């Protein structure tokens, strides 16, 4: 795989499409174990991302991701804002010195993004958060020759497995045992992000 | 004399406004800035609002940030990182109760760390 | 199914309203009644408002009362004594944070004492 | 001394006069170490007390005091409301079975009122609250043949001595050492109450 500036913008475009289309679904997931705003938050954030990307021109993938980061941070609101914001900021920082973004530099960047999410949210694997999608995806990137269909499957399976987990971080943690049996909203939006990436590298 | 500033971060702009009223009844000369609700004043928090509040609340003595629940904390931490030139400290204490106490102490001319320590000592909370 | 009620006592009616909004975004079917401000909606608390709130919030499962600072506590205690037929319990916990947690737990059908214990356990506060 | 129904109403009337006249003074005291509302609170409460007493007729001193209690409780607001309310409720309850209110039954009632304030506010002597006037006055009633001028002096001195105390209860306690050097507002309103009583028993 190689990720160009155009690929990156396309990646965000596809993610935005999926999030806008599934806005109500994300909100419904957040309704059961949260405050019913994850769809609204993400839709608002990615709409602003697209506005921003459409209006600017870029020299590096890192710069695209920096704008994504800053926009998500200030527009998403809720927990997802600083978390996605931090993730993209770390991607951007890690890729700063890469002339071209290949699989190994992207894998490295993804690792730092995951560390960023952990640092920001103080959660870890198994706490029913977006990390339960980000971590398996990152593991896959670190260990493999990435294939689009495998990436898609890994992200999807990871998202679905959050159903069985009990939330111990974020709003859903207030629901304790009752949080079990429902997909984590942040994991669902993360799935849209990575399935869009799979489409791009296909 | 310049005083330590207070930033009230809440998911609800009404909560922040109410605390402001409560404090202003007692203390007039301490800078208090509100960061309640999202940019559209919906329930939520906004990094931009928090950053602006930090900047406005600082008189050179630094700023103490109080927040209500969960994700407000992450936004507050990011805002602090992004306004690094200002001495801003997030505190884990009950929002209403802690902010009230801090405002009184700031009004008496106490320094940032001393106020922080007093509030922490008063509310020995595991979590908040 | 009837749920444990929540009464929000604050010196400021805005604080009580804000917490109400914050909770209602997440939990719709728990009775929450506000006792914010004095009878004239000035900063302060009112025994009559608290008593009415207790009565309205009770669905037979009892009521948990949250308060902000100092004198609100005394008014709450008197109001509880004067509505003795209702199982009402005052709790010392951070107002915003504790009430939010209690509302979620009540929404799950928990009993008064269990909610009380959960909140107390979550916020090991000496004072609040 | 003997306190009739008329005396009791007169007592409240004189107290109300002094509180209305000194409303701003009480507020000024509460401004330095509190939230500037003690004058407003007490003036509102006693105005309502007078309305209530003027509109009703009474069979016992206890009944007058019960109405005073209920009115102060619901109209004063702030800390002073439940505290004065409890005090008058205890007076009323203690005097319930007294055919006539003489010095010893009043002394006994005052003792219970003080206990009520302590129970309600969890303060004790020396914490710079109204108790620092109520306790010396109650001690004087318990130990002596009450004389109006002595009562006045004791209440006044007690109020003035609160200046030197450090507040450890109520709003003023937030000010810690800075609360020293100012008269406690609740002690000032309590002084008006007891100097009015002195005028009545003169
Ligand atoms: N501490 C955390 N660490 C990692 N992810 C988190 C954390 N808290 C929440 N999340 C993620 O954020 C999602 C909720 O986002 P959102 O609904 O936008 O925010 P909020 O909960 O503030 O309303 C959750 O589903 C979860 O995936
Ligand atoms: N815990 C307490 N015990 C006894 N008296 C108290 C207590 N707290 C406050 N007071 C008295 O109440 C007075 C303040 O009354 P007020 O200003 O009406 O109430 P608030 O402090 O709620 O505004 C104080 O000056 C003090 O005398
Ligand atoms: Mg949400
Ligand atoms: Mg939210
Ligand atoms: Mg006052
Ligand atoms: Mg007051």
From TrEMBL, chains A, D:
GO MF annotation list: glycerone kinase activity; phosphoenolpyruvate-glycerone phosphotransferase activity
Binding partners and assembly: Homodimer. The dihydroxyacetone kinase complex is composed of a homodimer of DhaM, a homodimer of DhaK and the subunit DhaL.
GO CC terms, sorted: cytosol
Biological function: ADP-binding subunit of the dihydroxyacetone kinase, which is responsible for the phosphoenolpyruvate (PEP)-dependent phosphorylation of dihydroxyacetone. DhaL-ADP is converted to DhaL-ATP via a phosphoryl group transfer from DhaM and transmits it to dihydroxyacetone binds to DhaK.
Annotated metabolic or biological route of this protein: Polyol metabolism; glycerol degradation
EC class: transferase
Protein's name in the database: phosphoenolpyruvate--glycerone phosphotransferase
InterPro entries on file: DhaK_L_YcgS, DhaL_dom, DhaL_dom_sf, Dihydroxyacetone_Kinase
Keywords of the record: Glycerol metabolism, Kinase, Transferase
Gene Ontology biological process terms in this record: glycerol catabolic process
Position of the signal peptide: none
Originating species: Oceanobacillus piezotolerans
EC number, UniProt record: 2.7.1.121
Domain DhaL: 6-199
Superkingdom of this protein's organism: Bacteria
Catalysed reactions, as listed in the record: dihydroxyacetone + phosphoenolpyruvate = dihydroxyacetone phosphate + pyruvate
Family annotation (NCBIfam families): dha_L_ycgS (TIGR02365)
From TrEMBL, chains B, C:
UniProt KW keywords: Kinase, Transferase
Boundaries of every PTS EIIA type-4 domain copy: 3-128
Domain of life from the UniProt record: Bacteria
SUPFAM superfamilies: PTS system fructose IIA component-like
Gene3D superfamilies documented for this protein: Phosphotransferase system, mannose-type IIA component
GO cellular component: membrane
Listed EC numbers: 2.7.1.121
Catalytic activity: dihydroxyacetone + phosphoenolpyruvate = dihydroxyacetone phosphate + pyruvate
GO BP, sorted A to Z: glycerol catabolic process; phosphoenolpyruvate-dependent sugar phosphotransferase system
MF terms in GO: phosphoenolpyruvate-glycerone phosphotransferase activity
Enzyme superclass (EC): transferase
PANTHER family: PEP-DEPENDENT DIHYDROXYACETONE KINASE, PHOSPHORYL DONOR SUBUNIT DHAM
Function: Component of the dihydroxyacetone kinase complex, which is responsible for the phosphoenolpyruvate (PEP)-dependent phosphorylation of dihydroxyacetone. DhaM serves as the phosphoryl donor. Is phosphorylated by phosphoenolpyruvate in an EI- and HPr-dependent reaction, and a phosphorelay system on histidine residues finally leads to phosphoryl transfer to DhaL and dihydroxyacetone.
Subunit relationships: Homodimer. The dihydroxyacetone kinase complex is composed of a homodimer of DhaM, a homodimer of DhaK and the subunit DhaL.
Protein name: phosphoenolpyruvate--glycerone phosphotransferase
Organism: Oceanobacillus piezotolerans
Lineage, highest ranks first: Bacteria, Bacillati, Bacillota, Bacilli, Bacillales
